[in-house]
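From: lab user (bench 3)
To: helpdesk
Subject: output format question, protein + zinc ion

Hello, I'm new to running complex predictions and I'm not sure whether the block I got back is the full result or only part of it. Here's what I submitted:
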Amino acid sequence: MLINLESAFQSSPCLVSFNFYNIESLTAILNAAKKSEKPVIAAFGEGYLSHMPLKLTAGLAGIFDRIYDMPFVLHLDHARSKEVVFQAITLGFSSVMYDGSHLPFEQNIQNTKEIVNYAKKYGVTVEGELGCMNPEDGTGPRIQSDYYTNPGQAALFAAKTGVDALAVSVGNAHGVYSGQPHIDFDRILEIRGAAHLPLVLHGCSGIPFDDIRKAVRCGIRKINVNTDMAVEAAKSVKTFLDTQGETARMDKAMEYAQAAMERVAEKYLNCF
Ligand SMILES: [Zn+2]
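Helpdesk reply: Thanks, we reran it on our side. This is the complete output you should expect:
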């Protein structure tokens, strides 16, 4: 059964969201959740649309939903296009993220509010974002603290938009961290105290589990993991190709990738 974020929050102090972009990644996420007996979020990013159309993604998730006897959240990750968000909602996604963090504050509020109004009619939950982060593909410089989420703005954003969760910038980054990540735990506490919303920490690949647990105690209710899964899958395929040489087959390579993604997903699901 597909559930929204609000329902999923009731079953866990912190949810883990993993990205999927093909059958293998979705299988890995759902297998890991089943083994761990934990709720999970399968997230599809707008960035994957170039090779996997939204209609196909929603259809695929619907089939998996019928096969797997467990609730999970089908979430749209980092959508900057309102049209893509509306399409995802009508196609059956149970949760969406509208990322207006690159827009002026008032414009972000206005667009996010529009999404919330539409989503509510379908029982779909909405995650917004405030504060700057580097791009989802992990490129770009580390964000300086001047651009972290402002607690006062977060309170206004929460009140004016009615979002169900808020992604924050508190020293986290997409992609591979260069050096040790430094999470601003005090700021998480301040944002939580001001906005009274479940907070979301993107870019959790590479943040030590002790820090993730501490962030959860400060108010994080959803963590996003993508890089670790994607990198480990690619590494396992490379190892396979290196050992098999010219006789390597794609079907076997994908098995290795799926197994690696499942191991990573289980590790994060079991860190709480
Ligand atoms: Zn993200």
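A quick orientation on your result: Residues 78, 136, 174, 202, 224 surround zinc ion (CB under 6 Å). Let us know if anything else is unclear.
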